[in-house]
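Title: Prediction job returns without error message
Component: structure pipeline
Severity: low
Priority: P3
Assignee: unassigned

Description:
Job completed but the reporter wants confirmation the result is attached to the right record. Sequence as submitted:
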Amino acid sequence: MLLSALGLVLAVYRVRVAGLKCRGQELERIVEQKTHELREMSLTDPLTGLRNRRFLTEVLSTDIQAFLDFKKYVLSSRNSRRGLDEVSVFGVFMLDIDHFKQLNDRFGHEAGDRFLTEFAQLLKCSIRLNDVVVRTGGEEFLVVLKNTDVAYLDLFATKILAKIAEQSFLLSEGTSSKIHKTCSVGYSAFPLIDAEPDKYNFEQIMMLADQALYYAKAHGRNQAVRVLAGPARPETPEQAEKLLKNLEYGEQKGYVIKKVFRMSGDESSSSGTPG
């Protein structure tokens, strides 16, 4: 009788322990899920659902470093794939919606927010699953095409210009009010110089792309401006810093060359005068 009672107590104890263990595992799962959700929120722009600047430093930087290490490996080895790998880059595109303030002033901030959300979705639908779109602030966005053919960069830039210009953006729910807008693009490849992958870091390439975007905005908008490496190299930190702040200075010194694509289909080199 005593043995039976002890057996029953032991069985109850084991069931209770198993129950507590299952409950503990469930709590761990919930905590892990909530932690993941909070981290995702911290890396996501709440309006558009795109990635934010924090994502660049905490997540994308790892991919960038891995890609840079691979490029260095390819350069330092006699790998038979070297010729193929040298055309692979990260495409860095800075985009800004043309005359966005006018949209806000005329139709209100709610319409502006809706436009930004639709614009963000259009960008997301234009890239591969592994690529990244970041809202860097206001109406400015960053697109990073990972490990892509360098020859595709120009095609992507002109494709985005055309898609944005052709899109009818709905201003508010339940109405037929639509608007057409354009955007400007500044872009470059990372690394900028394949034989010198450490010459400019990713942040500096973003700065060059931003300078190209500024040029596109100042010279007619609705165009894409690419920064390519020139024949010369900055010899001092001061020269390099000035290049990152002044694209025209870089052109004059031969550090960079700009390539302009307009919606008309015309292409001009750095010597051309934008319309």
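Comment from assignee: result matches the submitted record. The mean pLDDT is 85.
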